[in-house]
């Protein structure tokens, strides 16, 4: 059919116009979310008067307060995006969190860090769930996991940039005042990103003047046909749907492992390899490189085979087994580090294939609200992950038990994934 060929020709335009901008925004987003991990390793809390014994608990609480705030705006910011478009919501969010990140570079007490991390969570809340819903408005079922992967590849790639930026700043300024400069530079980048997004992104396909009239009509027709397969419920009923609840549980477990891994990555490398913050920052690049490549390849495979649930299950197993074997071999640094890096394949790759499931399940306000709820509940794992790993480190003096717990969460997430019905 002719409209199908028009959809195909518009795909490259949609990829080129939207995904590079969203990719850049997610790099900025993730840098501002995990830059505290590099600051922790550089002794941020010791400079604020925290004893070495208390750092694990204090740092975990500071990292976790972000996700308390992050929970608050999800559902309603997504409903706002569905009705008013993404550009205005993102502009406000990026300007707010840029200012908050810059302010974090000026903190003089732990209580100030707590307040600013909570506010940063509220400011960043509309972004990820907003993009997941936004992509469902622009990309069809056979395209979604791949589109998701080009966006979520920014997580491991931001880890590469974050490690390089942190390593360079610490090498230039030292651990102190290096961690302050880290927040200042990355906060200014967020403000720039918000302004750029406002002028480059397009809210809805019907607004896309960079598509021809025929391409817009064909895309609209394709989405109408896809809507027939989706469940039709109100957004309030969607929040109580069993599939939505199971998806939220899976995402919570996956995110628990992801943030336990991301927030403590430099510190775990320092602990196992007995290296300083600068070397640990540069070594942190390796897992992110592996994840950034595998994430896109796995998502493209899942789109071709349309087996997103099973692929999500499989990558969770890779994460769990890799983490468990890394902990078991921690006395042999090279082997343990290699297994820890391989685990990153599953830690990060599940995101693109996982989100293809809820994106194709509901529509309209129901999809917006459900995606917001899944992301809100799931990202509470950002509280659990850092706290569990940090608490076990403080209690046992080792990161090994925390790595085992992350492995368990990943495997459990994979098993629950298989319980989700297709529609």
UniProtKB/TrEMBL annotation:
Keyword Transport in record: yes
Membrane-spanning segments: 21-40, 55-77, 89-108, 114-138, 150-170, 182-201, 242-265, 277-298, 310-328, 334-357, 369-391, 403-420
Molecular function terms, GO-annotated: transmembrane transporter activity
Subcellular location: Membrane
Pfam families, sorted: MFS_1
Keywords: Membrane, Transmembrane, Transmembrane helix, Transport
Major facilitator superfamily (MFS) profile domain residues: 18-423
Topology of this chain in the membrane: Multi-pass membrane protein
GO cellular component annotations of the record: membrane
PANTHER family, A to Z: PERMEASE-RELATED, TRANSPORTER, PUTATIVE (AFU_ORTHOLOGUE AFUA_6G08340)-RELATED
Protein name in UniProt: Membrane transporter
Provenance organism: Saccharolobus solfataricus (strain ATCC 35092 / DSM 1617 / JCM 11322 / P2)
């Amino acid at each position: 059919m002719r409209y199908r060929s028009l959809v195909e020709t518009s795909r490259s335009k949609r990829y080129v116009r939207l995904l590079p901008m969203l990719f850049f925004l997610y790099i900025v987003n993730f840098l501002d979310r995990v830059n505290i991990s590099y600051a922790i390793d550089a002794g941020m809390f010791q400079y604020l008067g925290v004893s070495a014994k208390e750092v694990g608990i204090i740092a975990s609480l500071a990292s976790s307060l972000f996700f308390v705030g992050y929970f608050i705006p999800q559902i309603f910011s997504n409903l706002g995006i569905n009705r008013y478009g993404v550009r205005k919501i993102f502009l406000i969010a990026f300007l707010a969190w840029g200012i908050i990140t810059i302010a974090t570079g000026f903190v003089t007490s732990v209580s100030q860090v707590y307040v600013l991390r909570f506010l940063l969570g509220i400011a960043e809340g509309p972004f990820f769930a907003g993009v997941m819903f936004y992509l469902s408005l622009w990309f069809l079922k056979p395209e979604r996991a791949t589109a998701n992967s080009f966006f979520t590849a920014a997580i491991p790639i931001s880890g590469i940039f974050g490690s390089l930026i942190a390593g360079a700043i610490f090498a230039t300024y030292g651990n102190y005042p290096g961690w302050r400069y880290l927040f200042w530079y990355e906060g200014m980048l967020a403000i720039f990103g918000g302004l750029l997004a406002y002028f480059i992104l397009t809210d809805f396909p019907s607004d896309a003047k960079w598509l021809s009239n025929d391409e817009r009509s064909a895309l609209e027709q394709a989405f109408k046909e896809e809507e027939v397969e989706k469940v039709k419920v109100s957004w309030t009923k969607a929040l109580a749907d069993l599939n939505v609840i199971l998806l939220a549980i899976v995402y919570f477990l996956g995110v628990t492992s992801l943030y336990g891994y991301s927030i403590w990555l430099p510190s775990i490398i320092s602990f196992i390899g007995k290296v300083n913050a600068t070397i640990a920052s540069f070594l942190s690049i390796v897992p992110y490189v592996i994840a950034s490549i595998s994430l896109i390849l796995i998502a493209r495979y899942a789109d071709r085979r349309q087996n997103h649930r099973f692929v999500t299950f499989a990558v969770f197993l890779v994460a769990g087994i890799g983490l468990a074997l890394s902990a078991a071999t921690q006395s042999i640094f090279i082997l343990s580090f290699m297994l820890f890096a391989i685990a990153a394949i599953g830690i990060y790759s599940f995101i693109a294939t996982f989100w293809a499931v809820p994106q194709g399940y509901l529509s309209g306000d129901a999809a917006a609200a459900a995606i917001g709820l899944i992301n809100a509940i799931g990202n509470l794992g950002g509280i659990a992950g850092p706290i569990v790993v940090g608490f076990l480190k403080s209690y046992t003096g080792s990161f090994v038990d925390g790595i085992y717990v992350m492995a368990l969460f990943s495997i459990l997430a994979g098993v629950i994934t298989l319980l989700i019905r297709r529609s």
